[in-house]
Amino acid sequence: MSHTTDEIHSQPEIWREAAELATQIEPLWEPGESLAIVGCGTSWFVAQAIAALRESVGEGITDAVTATEFSASRTYDRVIALSRSGTTTEIIDVLRALEPTETRTTLITAVGDGPAAAHADREVVLDFADETSVVQTRFATSALTFMRTHLEDVGQSLADCTEALETPLPQEWVDASQITFLGTGWTYGLAQEAGLKLREAAQSWTESYYAMEYRHGPISIAEPGRLVWVFGPVPEGLDAQVADTGATLVTSELDPLAHLVIAQRLAVARAEANGLDPDQPRHLTRSVILS
Questions:
Q1: Apex 251 CA angle, 246 and 253, nearest 5
Q2: Rounded to whole angstroms, how far apart are CA atoms 214 and 179?
Q3: What average pLDDT does this structure show over 149-178?
Q4: Helix 155-166 vs helix 11-24: angle between axes, to the nearest 10 degrees?
Q5: Residue 125 pLDDT > 80, yes or no?
Q6: DSSP per-residue codes, the chain
Q7: Would you say residue 280 has pLDDT above 90?
Q8: pLDDT at 115
Q9: Given a cut of 90, is residue 291 above it in pLDDT?
Q10: Which of 265, 141, 131 is closest to 202 using CA atoms?
Q11: What is the rounded average pLDDT of the residues 93-103?
Q12: pLDDT tens digit sequence for 196-205
């Protein structure tokens, strides 16, 4: 089996460890603080999910920003940076730029004492969630679980993760010519991440949208042999509209983060079906380090 497969299947235990750690340390933020969560690639999509979730429970203004687009003209009480390796150049640049300011900074990483840590006020190391595969799976979901624990009960998510690992993958999903992932609120970040996983590991044609935005144009690509995958509740009427296109609607009663685990498994299955190595996606490295 691939490292990616092993890491996907390790997630129930890893999520529990992340949730437990969240209860043992000082809070990542205070209610009412203005907060930016910064990341690149997968980490940016995790940031999108947590930012939407934090605002939805009334904890305060929260922006999710990809590191290269972080604006010096905006001020925040606190900035949280996500970097699995702690070496991502754009993350280091953001933290370095914030050092002279009063903004408090936290780095969440899987590898402690890396280059980014030197520029953060605080470092949280999820070393138990580190990965061998280039494709991120368990670090991203564990970081999300770790932060989500500060906002709501994650017990159902932990329970559903095991079920997600046992859910059959229909051959229709493996063979689908195109997949569109949809989400609402915090699950939009999951839709973005699912699409990225399929592109990275399996070179699949995937797209991601807000669920209500899908009908404003993107639904035109739906047809038989393609999937429309919704994280969380399906907006009223969307199921009928997808059925009219002939595409297959994929939904789940599982917690949305556990539903993402099924998409991770599908990425590996599609990669292997096409003779690809999910551990080594083309043109990618474990960390982006710019000269």
A1: 155
A2: 13
A3: 98
A4: 170
A5: yes
A6: --HHHHHHHTHHHHHHHHHHHHHHS--SS-TT--EEEEESTHHHHHHHHHHHHHHHTTS--EEEEEGGG--TT---SEEEEEESSS--HHHHHHHHHHTTSS-EEEEEESSTT-TTGGG-SEEEE-GGG--SSSS-SHHHHHHHHHHHTTTS--HHHHHHHHHHHHS---HHHHH-SEEEEEE-TTHHHHHHHHHHHHHHHH---EEEEEGGGTTTTGGGG--TTEEEEESSPPPTTHHHHHHHHTPEEE--SS-HHHHHHHHHHHHHHHHHHTT--TTS-TT--SS----
A7: no
A8: 97
A9: no
A10: 265
A11: 97
A12: 999 999 999 9
Query: Per the structure block, which two tokens stand in for 220?
Result: 């035109």
Q: How far, in Å, CA of 5 to CA of 219, rounded? A: 32
Segment 40-51, tens digit of pLDDT: 999 999 999 999
